[in-house]
Prior knowledge:
Oligomer: single chain
Radius of gyration: 21 Å
Strand order of the largest sheet: 3-2-1-4-7-6
Structural class: alpha/beta
Number of helices: 9
Amino acid sequence: MPSDVTPAYIAIDWGTTNRRIYVLAADGTMLDTVRDDRGVLAMDQSGYAREITAIRIRFGDLPIIAAGMVGSTRGWREAAYVPAPADIPTLARAATRIAESDVTIVPGVSLLTDTRADVMRGEEVQVLGAVAAGIAPADALFAQPGTHNKWVHVEGGRITDFATTMTGELFALVKGHGILAGMLDGPVADGAAFRDGLARGSGACDLTAALFGVRASVLLGRIVAEDAAAYASGLLIGSDVGAVPGLEGRTVHLLSSGLLADLYTIGIEARGGTVVALDSHAGFLAGLHAIREHLS
């Protein structure tokens, strides 16, 4: 941590399995950070106060603002969802204050229509933070690949619509359980097998049949065994990307990095979209800083 800058507050991205702690200056500059496995699944209700004390012993007796699953019904204290459309001031007004611990928890965002229901916690901070920081426009489409990928529509700096897909979780489930278990142990990477799966999955209305076809293709020699995982990954990502309407000619702001971001980039570009890669951590910090600035 720089010795010539005074820390002002602590920001926490407190997720399901992992937690990232940031120490920030008054202007939002990051001074220090650490990541660990103390997500909400590793916690019980009696443990949060102790964790907050331990964080302050390590980083200083500073105010804390947190977002993510810590505010869910499985977390420390529920911060009720705010309905879309939602922006930075909306999240700030609905934040939950734990006065005795000097902790503020940011709410998530919900969507409820005649045909769909959806929720998010944490991703909204990244998206609105990217807009607040000026690294994404106020009218944009975002994708956040992960266990549960989010497609988020922002208009005028407000989250107006979003959809969650279980793409990553579904891949993990079919890889570890059921009839495909043991067949998807090969590497997942770009290549002919991945792109074949991408083409098969794009626009597919028979995803369950296509998944069983992975097994049949290996048994009948259409796919070599070591390519099955890459093909299945392409199949699922293709189905996910293929379900997004009007993607051709559109820019997608991708809040992710690493292999999964690369594979989604390939899938989006195959549909005629253009990808702009963004730093999700920068978006998160800018979002929490902007929310903190709006707290009364």
